[in-house]
Amino acid sequence: MAYSNKVIDHYNNPRNVGSLDKAKATVGTGVVGAPECGDVMKLQIEVEGDRIVDAKFKTFGCGSAIASSSLATEWIKGKTLDEAMQIKNTQIVEELSLPPVKIHCSVLAEDAIKSAVMDYKAKQGAGAPLAETKKS
Amino acid sequence: MTVCPHCAAELESPAGCPHCKVPLEVPEDASLFDLLGLEHRFAVDVKDLRKRVLKVSRDIHPDFFGTSAPGVRELAEKNSARVNKAFEILSDDAERADWIVRDLGGPDEQEERAMPREFLMEVLDWNEILEEARSRTEALDPRLEPLASELSERRGQAIASIGALLTPMPPRGSPNLVRVRQELNSIRYVDRALAEIEALRLARASVR
User: Fold this and answer.
1) Of A118, A97, A127, A98, nearest to A43 (Cα)?
2) What are the extents of the domains in chain B?
3) Which end of chain A has fewer beta carbons closer than 10 Å to its terminal beta carbon, N or C?
4) Cβ–Cβ of B120/A31 closer than 8 Å?
5) What pLDDT is recorded for position B140?
Protein backbone atom coordinates (compact mmCIF):
# COMPACT_ATOMS: atom_id res chain seq x y z
CA MET A 1 0.00 0.00 0.00
CA ALA A 2 1.39 3.38 -0.96
CA TYR A 3 1.23 6.29 1.44
CA SER A 4 0.20 9.67 0.06
CA ASN A 5 2.79 12.46 -0.09
CA LYS A 6 1.05 14.29 2.73
CA VAL A 7 1.24 11.24 5.00
CA ILE A 8 4.93 10.83 4.17
CA ASP A 9 5.55 14.52 4.86
CA HIS A 10 3.88 14.35 8.29
CA TYR A 11 5.66 11.08 9.02
CA ASN A 12 9.11 12.47 8.16
CA ASN A 13 8.47 15.88 9.70
CA PRO A 14 5.85 15.35 12.36
CA ARG A 15 4.54 18.65 13.75
CA ASN A 16 4.21 19.23 17.47
CA VAL A 17 5.74 16.01 18.75
CA GLY A 18 6.28 16.06 22.49
CA SER A 19 4.60 16.47 25.79
CA LEU A 20 3.00 19.22 27.85
CA ASP A 21 2.94 19.15 31.63
CA LYS A 22 -0.15 17.10 32.30
CA ALA A 23 -0.24 18.19 35.93
CA LYS A 24 -1.02 21.76 34.84
CA ALA A 25 -4.64 22.85 35.23
CA THR A 26 -4.61 24.45 31.77
CA VAL A 27 -3.47 21.25 30.02
CA GLY A 28 -5.85 18.56 28.80
CA THR A 29 -4.45 15.10 28.03
CA GLY A 30 -6.18 12.70 25.69
CA VAL A 31 -5.06 9.11 25.35
CA VAL A 32 -6.65 6.60 23.00
CA GLY A 33 -5.74 3.27 21.51
CA ALA A 34 -6.68 0.92 18.68
CA PRO A 35 -6.99 -2.64 19.93
CA GLU A 36 -6.91 -3.98 16.34
CA CYS A 37 -3.28 -3.02 15.94
CA GLY A 38 -2.09 -1.96 19.40
CA ASP A 39 -1.49 1.64 18.30
CA VAL A 40 -1.64 4.19 21.07
CA MET A 41 -1.87 7.97 20.77
CA LYS A 42 -1.47 10.76 23.32
CA LEU A 43 -2.66 14.25 22.39
CA GLN A 44 -2.34 17.21 24.73
CA ILE A 45 -3.75 20.71 24.55
CA GLU A 46 -2.93 23.86 26.45
CA VAL A 47 -5.90 26.18 26.79
CA GLU A 48 -6.21 29.91 27.48
CA GLY A 49 -9.75 31.15 27.95
CA ASP A 50 -11.53 28.82 25.56
CA ARG A 51 -8.79 28.78 22.94
CA ILE A 52 -6.20 26.08 22.33
CA VAL A 53 -2.84 27.86 22.36
CA ASP A 54 -0.60 24.81 22.12
CA ALA A 55 -0.91 21.15 21.18
CA LYS A 56 1.51 18.23 21.34
CA PHE A 57 1.24 14.58 20.47
CA LYS A 58 3.05 11.31 20.90
CA THR A 59 1.90 8.40 18.76
CA PHE A 60 3.19 4.87 18.72
CA GLY A 61 1.76 3.40 15.58
CA CYS A 62 1.90 3.26 11.81
CA GLY A 63 2.65 6.16 9.46
CA SER A 64 -1.02 6.99 9.01
CA ALA A 65 -1.63 7.16 12.76
CA ILE A 66 1.38 9.47 13.18
CA ALA A 67 0.29 11.65 10.25
CA SER A 68 -3.31 11.81 11.51
CA SER A 69 -2.27 12.97 14.96
CA SER A 70 0.34 15.38 13.59
CA LEU A 71 -2.29 16.95 11.34
CA ALA A 72 -4.78 17.05 14.21
CA THR A 73 -2.42 19.07 16.42
CA GLU A 74 -1.78 21.45 13.51
CA TRP A 75 -5.48 21.98 12.98
CA ILE A 76 -6.53 22.50 16.59
CA LYS A 77 -3.87 25.06 17.48
CA GLY A 78 -5.57 28.46 17.65
CA LYS A 79 -9.07 26.95 17.54
CA THR A 80 -11.62 27.25 20.34
CA LEU A 81 -12.52 24.08 22.23
CA ASP A 82 -15.88 23.96 20.47
CA GLU A 83 -14.28 24.32 17.07
CA ALA A 84 -11.80 21.55 17.88
CA MET A 85 -14.65 19.27 18.91
CA GLN A 86 -16.18 19.77 15.45
CA ILE A 87 -13.21 18.21 13.63
CA LYS A 88 -14.30 15.00 11.97
CA ASN A 89 -12.16 12.04 11.06
CA THR A 90 -13.47 12.29 7.49
CA GLN A 91 -11.70 15.64 7.11
CA ILE A 92 -8.44 13.98 8.14
CA VAL A 93 -9.08 11.10 5.70
CA GLU A 94 -9.64 13.60 2.91
CA GLU A 95 -6.64 15.81 3.72
CA LEU A 96 -4.25 12.84 3.95
CA SER A 97 -5.92 10.71 1.24
CA LEU A 98 -6.04 7.76 3.65
CA PRO A 99 -7.04 4.43 2.12
CA PRO A 100 -10.02 2.55 3.65
CA VAL A 101 -7.81 0.22 5.73
CA LYS A 102 -6.29 3.25 7.45
CA ILE A 103 -9.50 5.08 8.29
CA HIS A 104 -9.31 3.85 11.88
CA CYS A 105 -6.14 5.96 12.26
CA SER A 106 -8.15 9.10 11.57
CA VAL A 107 -10.86 7.93 13.99
CA LEU A 108 -8.13 7.57 16.61
CA ALA A 109 -7.01 11.17 16.02
CA GLU A 110 -10.59 12.49 16.28
CA ASP A 111 -11.10 10.52 19.49
CA ALA A 112 -7.79 11.83 20.85
CA ILE A 113 -8.90 15.46 20.34
CA LYS A 114 -12.21 14.77 22.10
CA SER A 115 -10.48 12.90 24.90
CA ALA A 116 -8.07 15.83 25.45
CA VAL A 117 -10.87 18.42 25.47
CA MET A 118 -12.91 16.30 27.87
CA ASP A 119 -9.95 15.85 30.18
CA TYR A 120 -9.40 19.62 30.18
CA LYS A 121 -13.07 20.28 30.92
CA ALA A 122 -13.09 17.69 33.68
CA LYS A 123 -10.10 19.42 35.27
CA GLN A 124 -11.81 22.80 35.07
CA GLY A 125 -15.04 21.34 36.39
CA ALA A 126 -13.24 19.78 39.30
CA GLY A 127 -11.78 23.23 40.05
CA ALA A 128 -8.35 21.74 40.64
CA PRO A 129 -5.97 19.51 38.73
CA LEU A 130 -7.16 15.92 38.84
CA ALA A 131 -5.16 13.48 40.82
CA GLU A 132 -2.66 11.83 38.51
CA THR A 133 -3.27 8.22 37.72
CA LYS A 134 0.06 7.52 36.06
CA LYS A 135 2.22 5.46 38.34
CA SER A 136 5.78 6.02 37.14
CA MET B 1 -20.37 -39.02 19.71
CA THR B 2 -21.00 -39.33 15.99
CA VAL B 3 -20.74 -42.60 14.14
CA CYS B 4 -19.30 -43.44 10.72
CA PRO B 5 -22.10 -43.59 8.10
CA HIS B 6 -20.27 -46.48 6.38
CA CYS B 7 -19.23 -48.84 9.20
CA ALA B 8 -21.14 -47.35 12.18
CA ALA B 9 -17.94 -47.13 14.23
CA GLU B 10 -17.89 -44.43 16.88
CA LEU B 11 -15.82 -41.47 15.74
CA GLU B 12 -13.48 -39.30 17.76
CA SER B 13 -13.65 -36.73 15.00
CA PRO B 14 -16.47 -36.44 12.44
CA ALA B 15 -13.85 -35.45 9.82
CA GLY B 16 -12.82 -39.02 9.03
CA CYS B 17 -13.26 -42.71 9.89
CA PRO B 18 -10.20 -44.61 11.21
CA HIS B 19 -11.65 -47.97 10.05
CA CYS B 20 -12.83 -47.03 6.57
CA LYS B 21 -9.84 -44.68 6.21
CA VAL B 22 -11.91 -42.06 4.43
CA PRO B 23 -12.75 -38.42 4.95
CA LEU B 24 -16.40 -37.83 5.88
CA GLU B 25 -18.77 -34.97 5.13
CA VAL B 26 -18.82 -32.61 8.11
CA PRO B 27 -21.76 -30.22 8.46
CA GLU B 28 -20.73 -26.63 7.62
CA ASP B 29 -21.97 -25.43 11.00
CA ALA B 30 -19.90 -27.92 13.01
CA SER B 31 -17.86 -25.93 15.52
CA LEU B 32 -14.11 -26.15 16.00
CA PHE B 33 -14.74 -28.19 19.13
CA ASP B 34 -17.17 -30.52 17.31
CA LEU B 35 -14.62 -31.04 14.58
CA LEU B 36 -12.15 -32.54 17.05
CA GLY B 37 -14.75 -34.30 19.18
CA LEU B 38 -14.25 -31.96 22.13
CA GLU B 39 -16.63 -30.55 24.66
CA HIS B 40 -17.34 -26.82 24.30
CA ARG B 41 -15.28 -25.33 27.08
CA PHE B 42 -12.40 -22.91 27.46
CA ALA B 43 -9.99 -25.29 29.18
CA VAL B 44 -8.13 -27.28 26.53
CA ASP B 45 -5.38 -29.85 26.98
CA VAL B 46 -3.10 -28.95 24.11
CA LYS B 47 -1.32 -32.32 24.22
CA ASP B 48 -4.63 -34.14 23.85
CA LEU B 49 -5.63 -31.70 21.14
CA ARG B 50 -2.46 -32.38 19.16
CA LYS B 51 -2.97 -36.13 19.55
CA ARG B 52 -6.50 -35.86 18.18
CA VAL B 53 -5.34 -33.80 15.23
CA LEU B 54 -2.52 -36.25 14.40
CA LYS B 55 -4.88 -39.20 14.74
CA VAL B 56 -7.54 -37.90 12.39
CA SER B 57 -4.86 -36.58 10.00
CA ARG B 58 -3.62 -40.15 9.55
CA ASP B 59 -7.01 -41.03 8.12
CA ILE B 60 -7.69 -38.00 6.00
CA HIS B 61 -4.36 -36.56 4.89
CA PRO B 62 -4.73 -35.52 1.22
CA ASP B 63 -1.48 -37.36 0.33
CA PHE B 64 -3.31 -40.67 0.81
CA PHE B 65 -5.99 -39.69 -1.69
CA GLY B 66 -3.86 -38.61 -4.62
CA THR B 67 -5.36 -41.31 -6.84
CA SER B 68 -8.86 -41.33 -5.34
CA ALA B 69 -11.98 -39.98 -7.01
CA PRO B 70 -11.86 -36.16 -7.22
CA GLY B 71 -14.73 -35.81 -4.74
CA VAL B 72 -12.92 -37.84 -2.08
CA ARG B 73 -9.65 -36.04 -2.68
CA GLU B 74 -11.32 -32.65 -2.34
CA LEU B 75 -13.07 -33.72 0.85
CA ALA B 76 -9.74 -34.89 2.27
CA GLU B 77 -8.19 -31.52 1.45
CA LYS B 78 -11.12 -29.60 2.85
CA ASN B 79 -11.30 -31.60 6.09
CA SER B 80 -7.55 -31.47 6.61
CA ALA B 81 -7.58 -27.72 6.19
CA ARG B 82 -10.47 -27.40 8.65
CA VAL B 83 -8.79 -29.63 11.22
CA ASN B 84 -5.49 -27.74 10.94
CA LYS B 85 -7.27 -24.41 11.29
CA ALA B 86 -9.17 -25.72 14.32
CA PHE B 87 -5.89 -26.77 15.92
CA GLU B 88 -4.32 -23.41 15.22
CA ILE B 89 -7.17 -21.56 16.94
CA LEU B 90 -7.95 -23.98 19.76
CA SER B 91 -4.32 -24.47 20.80
CA ASP B 92 -3.83 -20.73 21.42
CA ASP B 93 -5.49 -19.35 24.55
CA ALA B 94 -6.17 -15.89 23.11
CA GLU B 95 -7.35 -17.13 19.72
CA ARG B 96 -9.60 -19.73 21.36
CA ALA B 97 -11.15 -17.08 23.62
CA ASP B 98 -11.63 -14.77 20.63
CA TRP B 99 -13.37 -17.56 18.73
CA ILE B 100 -15.64 -18.36 21.69
CA VAL B 101 -16.64 -14.72 22.16
CA ARG B 102 -17.57 -14.42 18.47
CA ASP B 103 -19.32 -17.79 18.48
CA LEU B 104 -21.49 -16.69 21.41
CA GLY B 105 -22.40 -13.41 19.72
CA GLY B 106 -20.12 -11.29 21.92
CA PRO B 107 -18.57 -7.99 20.77
CA ASP B 108 -15.59 -7.89 18.40
CA GLU B 109 -12.69 -5.46 18.83
CA GLN B 110 -14.51 -2.80 16.80
CA GLU B 111 -17.62 -2.89 18.97
CA GLU B 112 -15.82 -3.01 22.29
CA ARG B 113 -12.69 -0.95 21.90
CA ALA B 114 -12.48 1.59 24.72
CA MET B 115 -9.79 0.86 27.29
CA PRO B 116 -9.35 2.44 30.72
CA ARG B 117 -7.28 5.60 30.63
CA GLU B 118 -4.83 4.26 33.22
CA PHE B 119 -4.19 1.21 31.06
CA LEU B 120 -3.48 3.30 27.96
CA MET B 121 -1.14 5.52 29.99
CA GLU B 122 0.79 2.37 30.90
CA VAL B 123 0.89 1.32 27.25
CA LEU B 124 2.41 4.73 26.50
CA ASP B 125 5.04 4.15 29.19
CA TRP B 126 6.02 0.77 27.69
CA ASN B 127 6.27 2.35 24.29
CA GLU B 128 8.46 5.19 25.61
CA ILE B 129 10.89 2.59 26.98
CA LEU B 130 10.81 0.63 23.71
CA GLU B 131 11.46 3.77 21.69
CA GLU B 132 14.49 4.66 23.78
CA ALA B 133 15.68 1.06 23.64
CA ARG B 134 15.53 1.12 19.84
CA SER B 135 17.74 4.20 19.68
CA ARG B 136 20.43 2.61 21.85
CA THR B 137 23.25 1.27 19.76
CA GLU B 138 25.50 -0.29 22.40
CA ALA B 139 24.06 -2.66 24.98
CA LEU B 140 20.49 -3.87 25.31
CA ASP B 141 18.44 -1.44 27.41
CA PRO B 142 18.49 -2.79 31.00
CA ARG B 143 14.81 -1.95 31.39
CA LEU B 144 13.79 -4.38 28.65
CA GLU B 145 14.04 -7.64 30.58
CA PRO B 146 12.05 -6.40 33.61
CA LEU B 147 9.47 -4.98 31.19
CA ALA B 148 9.28 -8.32 29.36
CA SER B 149 8.70 -10.17 32.65
CA GLU B 150 6.04 -7.69 33.69
CA LEU B 151 4.26 -8.00 30.35
CA SER B 152 4.39 -11.81 30.38
CA GLU B 153 2.94 -11.81 33.87
CA ARG B 154 0.15 -9.46 32.80
CA ARG B 155 -0.60 -11.69 29.84
CA GLY B 156 -0.82 -14.68 32.15
CA GLN B 157 -3.19 -12.81 34.46
CA ALA B 158 -5.38 -11.77 31.52
CA ILE B 159 -5.59 -15.37 30.28
CA ALA B 160 -6.42 -16.60 33.81
CA SER B 161 -9.16 -14.01 34.11
CA ILE B 162 -10.52 -15.01 30.67
CA GLY B 163 -10.54 -18.64 31.79
CA ALA B 164 -12.58 -17.71 34.86
CA LEU B 165 -15.03 -15.63 32.81
CA LEU B 166 -15.55 -18.47 30.32
CA THR B 167 -15.91 -21.27 32.89
CA PRO B 168 -18.57 -22.51 32.87
CA MET B 169 -19.27 -21.42 29.31
CA PRO B 170 -21.49 -18.32 29.59
CA PRO B 171 -24.79 -18.10 27.69
CA ARG B 172 -25.09 -16.09 24.47
CA GLY B 173 -25.15 -12.35 25.13
CA SER B 174 -23.63 -12.72 28.59
CA PRO B 175 -21.88 -9.59 29.95
CA ASN B 176 -18.89 -11.86 30.62
CA LEU B 177 -18.25 -11.83 26.87
CA VAL B 178 -17.72 -8.06 26.95
CA ARG B 179 -15.20 -8.48 29.75
CA VAL B 180 -13.40 -11.22 27.86
CA ARG B 181 -13.16 -8.89 24.84
CA GLN B 182 -11.63 -6.18 27.04
CA GLU B 183 -9.05 -8.66 28.35
CA LEU B 184 -8.32 -9.75 24.77
CA ASN B 185 -7.83 -6.11 23.77
CA SER B 186 -5.34 -5.66 26.60
CA ILE B 187 -3.50 -8.76 25.36
CA ARG B 188 -3.21 -7.14 21.92
CA TYR B 189 -1.29 -4.20 23.39
CA VAL B 190 0.83 -6.51 25.56
CA ASP B 191 1.66 -8.82 22.66
CA ARG B 192 2.67 -5.97 20.43
CA ALA B 193 5.11 -4.70 23.08
CA LEU B 194 6.43 -8.24 23.66
CA ALA B 195 6.98 -8.70 19.93
CA GLU B 196 8.99 -5.49 19.83
CA ILE B 197 11.13 -6.62 22.75
CA GLU B 198 11.76 -9.90 20.94
CA ALA B 199 12.75 -8.00 17.79
CA LEU B 200 15.20 -5.90 19.81
CA ARG B 201 16.70 -9.03 21.39
CA LEU B 202 17.14 -10.66 17.98
CA ALA B 203 18.66 -7.52 16.49
CA ARG B 204 21.13 -7.40 19.38
CA ALA B 205 21.93 -11.11 19.09
CA SER B 206 22.69 -10.78 15.39
CA VAL B 207 25.13 -7.92 16.06
CA ARG B 208 27.15 -10.05 18.46
Assistant:
1) A118
2) 16-91, 117-206
3) N
4) yes
5) 87
